Amino acid sequence: MTLAQLSKVKLEYFPHGKGPERIVFIHGFQASARIWNMVQAALPAERYSSIAINNRGAGGSEAPPDEADFSVPHFAADAFELVTRLGWTDFTLVGHSLGGATAAQFAVDHPDLLKGLVLLDPADPDGRTLPPGAPSMDEMLDRMMAGRREQQARGGGGDGIDASGAGANGELMRLLAEDMRNAPERRLRGSMRSMFDIRLGERVKSLPMPVIVVGGDADALIPVANMLATWAKYPAGTGLHFWHGIGHSPNLDCPAELAALLEQFIEKTIPARAAA
Q1: Which CATH number characterizes residue 238's domain?
Q2: Positive or negative, the Cα torsion across 65, 67, 155, 61?
Q3: How far apart (Å, rounded) are the C-alpha atoms in residues 180 and 177?
Q4: pLDDT digits over 141-170, tens only?
Q5: Containing structural domain, residue 235
Q6: 30 alpha carbon, distance to own chain's centre
Q7: N or C, where is the chain less crowded by C-beta within 10 Å?
């Protein structure tokens, strides 16, 4: 891992490989950059350079003091500052779950930096709304955090990832669960509030770079119908790929297959789109 002191926070990120093709990975709600470990390792190191970013408040990244410091725009701005410091341009951006919304925010703010955008089981770019008669946002967050504390008291790591870890070893799953347990509540509250508030649908439909939406058809957190609705908001020609029997975290359950899909997207789809 490597630490970068940005203008407002210190971010931890995990670099891998030394190749000319560059990929930036962004994790989701309760997860950390470790969720990308096996995907990075499955990419040919001589062909790909990648970084997996720990958002502020995740893993070894700094956690600012206020709930308002944690949001999709903040996460996207941090990622932009980090890649600018690294001198990275013309890279593929990959976002998982809430990280899909973060990647979408980055893409609409800095389209000139991206050669491609990959959205893995992504959050809706137009956020969510509370149904009529539902508890208020504050009440919902209070209940969610109380449930999380109870789960942790029983030894659970958190319920943000419905993954079996079929492709992961026990040590990786242990470290990821530890990162999830250590996530400060202010990060989770701010992230969830932002997941409801984001409204990017009108902007993502005109993104100029190739885009693909990828997921598992057994995802219990973001069902196929929701992912199809998200896919329809992106530009005509946006790719779509599902793995059968895979849940919310293909990066844990089928990392080699995800890495192979990324290679195909970067090596074949993007050049074909450019030629067309």
Answers
A1: 3.40.50.1820
A2: negative
A3: 5
A4: 999 899 888 877 876 655 545 456 667 888
A5: 2-275
A6: 10
A7: C
